[in-house]
Amino acid sequence: xxxxxxxxxxxxxxxxxxxxxxxxxxxxxxxxxxxxxxxxxxxxxxxxxxxxxxxxxxxxxxxxxxxxxxxxxxxxxxxxxxxxxxxxxxxxxxxxxxxxxxxxxxxxxxxxxxxxxxxxxxxxxxxxxxxxxxxxxxxxxxxxxxxxxxxxxxxxxxxxxxxxxxxxxxxxxxxxxxxxxxxxxxxxxxxxxxxxxxxxxxxxxxxxxxxxxxxxxxxxxxxxxxxxxxxxxxxxxxxxxxxxxxxxxxxxxxxxxxxxxxxxxxxxxxxxxxxxxxxxxxxxxxxxxxxxxxxxxxxxxxxxxxxxxxxxxxxxxxxxxxxxxxxxxxxxxxxxxxxxxxxxxxxxxxxxxx
Amino acid sequence: xxxxxxxxxxxxxxxxxxxxxxxxxxxxxxxxxxxxxxxxxxxxxxxxxxxxxxxxxxxxxxxxxxxxxxxxxxxxxxxxxxxxxxxxxxxxxxxxxxxxxxxxxxxxxxxxxxxxxxxxxxxxxxxxxxxxxxxxxxxxxxxxxxxxxxxxxxxxxxxxxxxxxxxxxxxxxxxxxxxxx
Lengths: 354, 181
Prior knowledge:
heterodimer, A: mainly alpha, 3 domains, B: mainly alpha, Four Helix Bundle (Hemerythrin (Met), subunit A), 2% strand, rod-shaped, hydrogen ion transport (chain A), proton-transporting ATPase activity, rotational mechanism (chain A), ion transport (chain A)
């Protein structure tokens, strides 16, 4: 059902009203600026624990024995977030259920890549599996570690998962799984995933489409720029690179053509010069004391996700909730690491939500 | 036999005014109830969801539910008022035994039908509107308590829409009276 007509507006709540309200309450529970101020005053990680217990996190660290470690903080924070997300996902009906499945796919891709890389470096399968992202877990994950070529990877494992379609479209080159190939696999998978997700939100129509399109288009542009910058000095041919760029977004197709020819940062800057807001990210990027390109991308992403909550009766809030919360966990970790390593002057370099 | 050129050669002549009058009454209560139920359900789903993490919103936001319920009450009041206008049609007895209603009875039948549509549909859309605003009200209140009263003002305006229909319905049927009453 598309949610763009008046009827869509007045029937959205049948299936999604309860969960939308729930997602919004989770978003309202995000840490405020005052919370961050308090957290930054902490001298030790245990103080951090104390401060967090007065927020929505509650006593999620209460039963941790001994001194708190940042890895434990990250794990528990993610467990809580995944709990909230799964709680909503398991109650969702179509098309929301499929929408939330799509959100999980990107974490599955991360896990696949993480497992292959780890296996390549001869890491123990058990340890690797325990470090996988909890949101991207799938049944046949354990068998991933036996694959040595891309074809094997597909035949034995991924054919059973929702990612199978992305592999077929990606038409991977034959060859062993080495460092370079894995990066290409990740990028092609992600491209196929983004395009599929984009098509899906477009088919939903209405506010969902307009909100999600902006978010996903930015994500696509950001990936295109990052791939370009990361490919400087590698042996990737123009044709190979072309397969990695998502085929939608603001930059597609003219901007992508320019990016393909770019050989240094200045040429990238020239390529995106006509696209707002992308051009602003390149202002004083290499200047001293300025934020890095990635920081600016993240800040803009957070901005888009905040905007998403300004509209009601659409599915984008479920995506935005997860992404804002993910950023919050990154912020928490940043502060925790700064405390643990006694780098207080670096502490303010995170992206606050409000 | 004709009493008015309006009714001449008109198939509607064959339909008894009772049918129109009762259809009008049915539409009044039926559509109003649909509107009220729709509104309560729109607000209710959001309210229940918002109240999980922020339980304080649950009592205050019953106001939105009450606004929706008021729409149903308009419907039942109007249905009763309309029903009071029904009486026994005396009319003119034709030689073949058929009783031909007076022109006033035809008018009353249509007036009640039209009045019922006015009240019913305005209450249906009023109910949906109040429900949509009420849903936003619950979410806004959960996020920021100061917003509650502000959004409630919007709810009040939305709820006035139903009253327009009620007023028009009363005026429309003011001179209607079916049969000897």
